[in-house]
């Protein structure tokens, strides 16, 4: 036998013997398990039978007590006492016996056994539960903190709310398991977690509209506060339980995280102010939400539901805490003095906030608050007060009453129901960004009256567009669409949802819908009238009936004329289609009635706010087009060294506004009209501009109650709300004609509003060609004396002006830079016309009589973004003020380099008139080139030599390098500035380079550039 085999046999024998023993042990274990199981059954059934018999004995004792002798009565009393003690003993026993799951646990987990059969495992489970709460609370605190202070994305909010839902759901399950294992958490605190889970779930589904934005910060601050209190509580509980354990008084489920803080001896007293503050915050939340729910444009059911949940939470928490305090005070009074006799309490029940149980026994001799208690309490209160004071009046209850009365005040989202209710048969939807489309819609809906029909203008964002198919329910019905195009053939913001709906619903049957489309666009843009064309085509595809051809309006030519001509042919087509006739009633139709206020509290009068009344005094984020931020101007300097023009660089301070931006975004500013023009208007019309008025819509069902925020003064309306500098449209002339006392003036005004060739030519030359604004018209037609209220009704709204942000948020997170040229020109009548916003901005000095100059602004996101991969080369083409976004891009590429990132080639093409005059940002550009942020700087000085040199000429000069960057190195091309000529010429130059170096035909080169655009590698930020 080989030597090794002996060892193997020996080993095997040994192993086999051990295995026999293991088998025996396991057999015994199974036997014991069996016995345990039998014993458990035995105990359980014995306990049941004991309980039953105990009841019977109790009845017998009661019977025997009647007429029993003194001695017998004593014996019976003793038995009675013991009977009373028994149920507790049974409960203690049952804590270690398997139990049936309650309804909730059975639903969630099924019938799995969740009873923990040893003290250790119970302690461990409770320990884990406490730790889970603590860790999760810290996580929630962090999340609320980040969302509140740093990032404002709905997506992150959704994650926070999801975490909350998950947290509360998990708590309800873990607590049910604890209860099954002998914990006495009960009553309100259990219910509290169900409500909280529901509340967080509702918050999660709340869509990202204005109501959500208003409540968001309040909710985040509340979550942050609750998490902090929760952490305090964890410490409090652990301290109490540690103490109870030290006293040998703990309940078997009361073991919790280690740690005892001496200052927690009076824990509940210490916690009470925080708890009550939290409860009242819940009440405040609920009241805020109820008030918000009453707002006309608050359509979300979540508002009311969350309000209700907060109210329930407040009531439950408040009354339970009051009960605890009462109980505590009572038990303090009855409490024996010695610690040794202190009554045991179950601190497990002090779960969420506190419990209906008393706090741990404390020595009566101890003072109510220790010095440390007072110190910490004062510190925390001090910090809270400091935080509140350091913000701008944040304790003010948010003004939820939305006073922007131009916004809808009814909740109707069904335009069909509204039309039926108000007897309308024509609806004019508008996709409009700067108001022209909306203006045309109003004019068309007003026209309807002249043909015996009733029309209404409607914002597609406010209505359920899925109802279009139902329009056939209304006799002789017609939908008109006035759709403007933006960006790269994109819809306006208010038409985005409608556009998505059209794209997504292939199966929609619109066969009963009569429609027509008027498109608003500008020929200088690549995607001319793309949106109007799309809507027209798509509605036809879905079966709708086009009753008149698509109208194309070109803002580069004469949009007004295009519209008037189209309208002139459109109405006869409508009449023919529906078999109706024009009523021949051409009289002016007023839409608003004037109300003068003589005794109105001036606090209720708008003074230029865009949205909420007093929003400029009490600024509350989030800031957007309806709630602009008043940004202080910190820098305002002239950029050009010479020449007659004024190019300026402004810096707006956004510290504390929570406004975030990216390089490439636009900043919108709300300008103010020149006060000299306003005064002249008042003078020429002979009116007191400081009269407080309201213009109220005569159509009570209309969503638009006033043409601008009312009540206000004429001065405010003409200064902040109305456009008094652009040449008025023909409808304004038509309506004003009635107020010209000279028949010649009247005739000319009517002629200009007509579609006759002479009328059009007159309007083109006398109004547009001479850039006559309303003041110039009133000056040049002295017989024209319109009532100021009618004029205010007719003038369009003053629009915000956009500027490409000239800074990077990476380098300047708290300021936004603007690069702009002041608009000023002489008209053919010899008048000097000044651009509203640029002249107003020019005069925004950093301090104005010791006050900071401010600018109402908000951010508009754009698609004009640096490539995601920093290594991709970029080619930036931006002559004149077109350099603006590239100042941001250059800063950002420099910052990336500083961070140690590898950054691709950065090539700049800039153009200006003269090197010594308007080579703006020369130092910055040359510095960037010197330190390698700009790998190539090309500047075209157009007027420094006989022949014009433009950016596109330099592009062609560098064609080999440019083509290599585009074709081989995946470069991204950016063009910014003039849309009318420059952007087109640059594109043509690139086509030519493609042709020459890519060996393509012109068509192929055009397609090549188009493809770059669709891939997001050719972006334009252009205006005209
Ligand atoms: C997306 C976007 C980004 C922009 N970025 C910038 C930027 O970074 N920097 C910048 O300076 N501008 C930028 N603009 C233009 C800017 O928004 C304003 O249009 C511009 O500053 C003029 O505003 P204003 O109120 O001073 O002039 P307005 O009062 O609006 O007057 C301008 C109008 O006057 C008329 N006009 C102007 N010059 C003449 C003339 N010589 N003859 C006859 N009529 C004339 C035209 O009708 C013109 O529309 C941008 C525009 C858009 C849409
Ligand atoms: N809507 C408004 O109120 C408004 C206000 C401001 C600016 N803008 C637009 O914004 C553009 C930029 O204005 P700005 O004052 O910043 O610029 P700018 O100083 O007028 O022009 C910058 C440079 O671009 C040159 N240029 C002119 N036509 C060009 C073309 N087709 N291709 C390439 N370069 C060309 C100019 O040369 P020359 O001048 O020597 O020909 C100049 O050297 C203007 O063209 C204007 O359309 C509009
Ligand atoms: C930044 C900007 C982008 C534009 N993009 C386009 C476009 O891609 N295609 C187009 O046809 N018109 C374009 N336009 C022109 C507008 O559609 C046109 O001026 C229209 O009358 C605006 O209507 P609104 O005042 O109702 O918003 C653009 C205008 C601006 C200011």
TrEMBL record:
EC class of the enzyme, as a word: oxidoreductase
Transmembrane segments: 134-153, 159-177, 189-207, 263-281, 301-325, 372-389
Keywords: Endoplasmic reticulum, FAD, Flavoprotein, FMN, Membrane, NADP, Oxidoreductase, Transmembrane, Transmembrane helix
Chain sites annotated for binding NADP(+): 645, 881, 942-943, 948-952, 985
GO cellular component, one term: nuclear inner membrane
Protein name per UniProt: NADPH--cytochrome P450 reductase
Listed CDD domains: CYPOR
Family the UniProt entry places it in: In the N-terminal section; belongs to the flavodoxin family.
Cofactor field: FMN; FAD
Domain of life: Eukaryota
One Pfam family of this chain: TMEM120A-B
Domain FAD-binding FR-type intervals: 626-867
Cofactor remark from the record: Binds 1 FMN per monomer.
PROSITE patterns: FAD_FR, FLAVODOXIN_LIKE
Gene Ontology MF: a single term: NADP binding
Binding residue positions for FAD: 801-804, 819-821, 825, 835-838, 1023
Subcellular compartments: Endoplasmic reticulum membrane; Nucleus inner membrane
Residue span(s) of domain Flavodoxin-like: 426-571
Membrane-topology descriptor: Single-pass membrane protein; Multi-pass membrane protein
EC number annotated for this UniProt entry: 1.6.2.4
Binding site for FMN: 432-437, 484-487, 520-529, 555
Functional description taken from the UniProt entry: This enzyme is required for electron transfer from NADP to cytochrome P450 in microsomes. It can also provide electron transfer to heme oxygenase and cytochrome B5.
